[in-house]
């Protein structure tokens, strides 16, 4: 199991390193004990956080209300929880990691 991924009881918890202001939003592999996400949104007035949560909801095929930012509101290091019934292998496939 990856250190940045936890799947249990219909919930997926991700530990992320977020880089705002990128050319496009994408998963960029692992960064230490985190999954690195490049975000096209600027780090201004919570726009990056909103863009991150919307992108994850779309990626996981869930409603935006099912994606919650648990920590890291004003930090590049974030913990996000997604309400879904995916296992670790499915989550890794969503991000193109194996």
Automatic annotation (TrEMBL):
<protein>
    <recommendedName>
        <fullName>UPF0235 protein C2134_08125</fullName>
    </recommendedName>
</protein>
<dbReference type="InterPro" id="IPR003746">
    <property type="entry name" value="DUF167"/>
</dbReference>
<dbReference type="Pfam" id="PF02594">
    <property type="entry name" value="DUF167"/>
</dbReference>
<dbReference type="InterPro" id="IPR036591">
    <property type="entry name" value="YggU-like_sf"/>
</dbReference>
<dbReference type="GO" id="GO:0005737">
    <property type="term" value="C:cytoplasm"/>
</dbReference>
<comment type="similarity">
    <text>Belongs to the UPF0235 family.</text>
</comment>
């Amino acid at each position: 199991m990856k250190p940045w991924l936890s799947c249990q009881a219909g919930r997926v918890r991700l530990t992320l390193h977020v880089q705002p202001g990128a050319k496009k939003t994408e998963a960029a592999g692992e960064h230490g004990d985190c999954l690195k996400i490049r975000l096209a949104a600027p780090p201004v007035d919570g726009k990056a956080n909103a863009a991150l949560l919307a992108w994850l909801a779309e990626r996981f095929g869930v409603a935006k209300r099912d994606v919650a930012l648990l920590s890291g509101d004003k930090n590049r290091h974030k913990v996000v929880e997604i309400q879904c019934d995916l296992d670790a292998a499915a989550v890794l496939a969503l991000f193109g990691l194996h």
